[in-house]
Amino acid sequence: MATPDPTSRDGAELRALIQAYLSAAEAGRTLDRAGRRYTTAGVRSLRRALAQVAAADEPVDAGALSVMDARALERLGRRVVDDAGLPPSRLTTIVDALRGLSAYAGARRGAEPPPAAPLPWTDPAPAPRPEPPPWLAEPPPPRVSQSDPAAAPEARTPTLTMLALGAHVGTWIERILVIAFVLTACGHGVHGVLEVLDDYYTSERARRWSRNFIITYAILASLIAAYVIWTR
């Protein structure tokens, strides 16, 4: 890992910010993520993690650090781990230290007194907002080619096809059995009604009309019931 230039402005500001943050943590003026005061071991771990940040190949602008979001801080932590050759298990500690340092930098910026009001004859220019370094910019999503076989939807496997077919066949068998049960019950009911009407009517013409009406009604009712069962 290359040694950063100690005379660079960004490096000096970052080291000053880290020192102020560590002093505040030791004095109890800033708390950890759980809202508790840093212990001695916690301050020691914080110091080791931020030492790796200060020794990064490319110093981080202290002003840009205060406006970084969680993703940018995680990418910065990964870069610090890679540059220092640290094990991946150190990433969580370094990212937590960067989050605390970023929150402390943002609080310091909010506590700074506002600049003096410009004179009436001057054109006030807005203060430039510090932006994260280019290497922290989130990369655009990769473009997926339509001809890429890896981007194509996953084909159905034979197992999934057989399961889907079995579900459809089971549904059809269930509907057929219910319709058969309804038709059987309807047939028995119609037969019983016809027997009663034959005993009630003595005229052959009346018996024929009653039979035609009952059978026609039973057929229509059976068709409607079968349609409702099949399409439910």
Describe it.
By secondary structure, the protein is mostly helical. The chain has helices at residues 9-27, 40-54, 62-65, 70-84, 91-111, 158-200, 204-231. The model is unreliable at 111-123 (pLDDT under 50). The longest helix has 43 residues, at 158-200. It has 2 domains: 9-112, no CATH class; 160-231. Helix 6 (158-200) packs antiparallel against helix 7. The protein contains 7 helices and no strands.
Layout of helices and strands, plus pairs?
Blueprint: H1 9-27, H2 40-54, H3 62-65, H4 70-84, H5 91-111, H6 158-200, H7 204-231
Mean pLDDT: 76
Strand content: under 5%
Per the principal axes of the C-alpha atoms, what is the gross shape? rod-shaped
How much is the radius of gyration in Å? 40 Å
Helix segment tally = 7
Helical content, roughly? 55-70%
Distance between the termini: 70 Å
Describe the structure in brief.
Helices cover 62% and strands 0% of the residues.
Write out key terms for the chains shown.
mainly alpha
